[in-house]
Structure formats: C-alpha cells, structure tokens
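Long-time lurker. I teach an intro course on protein structure, and each term I like to show students one example going from raw sequence to a predicted 3D structure in token notation. This year I'd like something fresh instead of my usual example. Would anyone be willing to generate the tokens for the chain below so I can use it in lecture? Attribution to the forum is fine with me.
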Amino acid sequence: MTLTQNIQKRLNDSPAARWGAMIIVSFTMMCGYFITDIMAPLEDILTKSVAEGGLGWTSSEYGFFSGAYGYINVFLLMLFFGGIILDKCGIRFTGTMSCALMFAGALLKWYAIDNSFGDATLFGYPMQVALATLGFAIFGMGAEITGITVTKVIVKWFTGHELALAMGLQVAMARIGTAAALACSLPMVKAFGRISSPLLLGAALLCIGLIAYLAYCVMDKKLDCSGENAADEEESFKMSDLKLIFTNKGFWLITLLCLMFYSGVFPFLKFATKVMIYKYNVTPDLAGLIPAMIPFGTILLTPVFGSMYDRIGKGATLMIIGSFLLTAVHILFALPILGYGWFAIIVMILLGISFSLVPSALWPSVPKIIPMKQLGSAYAIIFYIQNIGLSMVPVLIGWVIEKYSTVESATGTTYDYTLPMAIFACFGIIAIIIAIILKREDAAKHYGLEESNIKK
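-- Reply from a regular --
Happy to contribute to a lecture. Here you go:
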C-alpha cells in the first residue's frame, strides 16, 4: 500500500509546490493588470488640450483606445483560437507565447504615448491614438490568453484541494496590479513630468513577469513527470469536443453572467476617476485613489469568499448576492444625491464587496461544468464573450458622455453621469436574472455549484 501511494503521489500533493506555482503565475498576471488600468487615472490629462498640458484627445478617442484591449480578441477571434492552442499545445508553450505578446504590446503603447506625431493620422485617428490603440490591442490579446492559461494552471494544480481559495488569491494579486495602477499612475506623471512614465514601469514589470513564467514552466514539466500525467488530458482534446461546450446550457449561463458582471465593473473603472472629479468634487490628485479602493478591497475579500466556497459551497448564491450589490452601486451612482467624496467612498466599498463575491465563485465553478481536457477552450470562450463587453462598453460610454453628458457653461466643461451610470445598472439587473436561472439549472443538472470544493 505504501509503495502504491508513493507511485501515485504527484508534485501538486505538496502544499509548498502548488502554492509556489500559484504565486509565480499570479505574479505574471499581476504585472499584466498593472498595464491594463495604467491609463485610467490619466483620462483627464489625455483629454485636456496640449496648451493645458494634455494630449488633446477627445472622449470618443479615449473610449476607442480604452476598448482596444479586446479588439483583436473579439474581431479576429484570437482569444478563441488561443483556447484551442492551450488545449492542444499545453500550458508551457501557450503561456510563454502570450506573455511575450503582452510585453511587445506594452512597449508599443509606451512608444506611442511617449512621442508626438504632429498632424499624422492613421485610419482617421491621430497617429498617437492609433498606435497606442494597436499596442493596447496586442497587449490585450496576450493578457487574455495568459489569463486563461493561468486559470488552467491553477485548476491543474489545485483540483481536489483549495481551488477557490487559490483562484481567489490569484485574483487578489491581480487586483494589487490594478490598485497600484490606479493609485500610482497620476503621482508618477507628476513626479517625472512625462505621461508615459507609468507605461515604462509597466513594460519593465512585464519583462520580469515573462522571466517568472519561464521559471514556472520548469515546475510544470516536473508536475507532468510525477504520478499520473496530466498532459495526457491536454493531448486527448479534439475539435469535436467543442460541440460539448457549445451545447451546455450551464456553460452559457455562466458565460453570460460573466459578460454582464464584468461589463459593469472594468469599463466603469476606466471612467471612474473623472466621475469622482466632476460628480463628487474630489480633487484630481485624490480622484484616482477612490476607484483604487475596489481592487484593494478584493485583495482581502476574494480569498475569504473563495475559502468559504471551498469549505461550504453556495457558489451560485454568492453570484446572486454579488450581482445585487453591483446593481445597487450603479443605481446609487446614477442618483443625483450626496455629491460628496465620503459618499463615493462608501459606494465604492460596496462595489469592492460585489467584485469579490462574484469572481470568487464564478471562476472555480467552470471546472464543475466543463471537463479538464476542454477547460482551456471553455475559459477562452468565456473570456472571448467577456471581451466583447470590455471592448464595446467603453466605446458606448465614451460616446454617451460626449453626446449626452457633456455640459458646456461659462465656467467651463462639466459632466452629468446619470445616463452612463444607468447603463451600468442595467448590466447588473441582467446579471441578477442570469444568476438566478443558473442556480435553478444547477439544481436540475447537479453541477455541484452549491457544494464545497475540497474533497476529503
């Protein structure tokens, strides 16, 4: 019996090994999230005239740029193909490729913002906007493929162990990157006198993240050589397996919930700093710190809710509660009441709780619906659909702000954010409905979303 147990023991049975692997890949994603949101606090600078020290972008140009994260993923289907590559070629090849794409895109984005191109245009946009958008799109392609790869890494190492806690901690580390971007971007610009300075730091961090992922690849190879070889599952994937994903009702419900929920969070963060300035009268120096409370809150709460899901279950219930909170937050932001910074802080805390509840339950629930060998493609499809929202919603909100929310007066330009926030609230309402249907589907199909993850 002892000999048999030794033969079957795998590297991920060691807590130190599996948590070490999680920290390495999570660090790489943390560096990616830093770049993702590094420009959000700088919207006011980007849209100011050159004479005022800005870059002279319009709100529509900023919206076009902000949505670029998902353009290649959505319109060229690269995220979908990335999932297939992940299932066919494995974690090591796919992760290294996607990390390199992130680094290349970040460098192009930095180059565009760091240089002035005069009156040159490309595809109807100023050259600076066009190149920055292209760099962000390349980065986004790499970041999303890295995201599904890291998620599959964690499932591979933690199935039967602390899966939701591990995913929660990975999300928490990602939020550290987001929080650092929101809190440090504007102070760095003021300290160094260049708008591109945060981007240069982000590119350097991504270079370190790429090296870290290469170190993980050594661990992944050792895992495949220990005990039962998980690589066999990746090699057994067939294109015909996609039919099993596309015909799974539970999969589509969790995908649409992801779309609605994240469309109400990440696009909002790209405009939140300006909302704090013009709706809640927060000074520009402090305005980026209030949205930064969201990721800081999730750093603490997502692992807590993830551990709760591991031990007592109730994943579908957590998603319903989180969707209710998201809706309440955007309704409060839409209402013309209490235009004070302290009120905005309270509402942001509620959004942080919502942003911890749903991801802590949503991502660990996918392996309960989809088998391991199809998991890369499944996560890729979810991320692909999510990217439609991440790409199109900022464009929509930027257009709405410019068309309906911009108020010109003798004292200058102000903004009425009632309509944009009402749009975000609609995403939350739809998320509530989908989460309730998902809970009913779980009861009928016995996915186990309400059951604990740790197997005794």
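Some talking points for your students: The CA atoms of residues 83 and 380 lie 5 Å apart. Residues 127-158 form the longest helix (32 residues).
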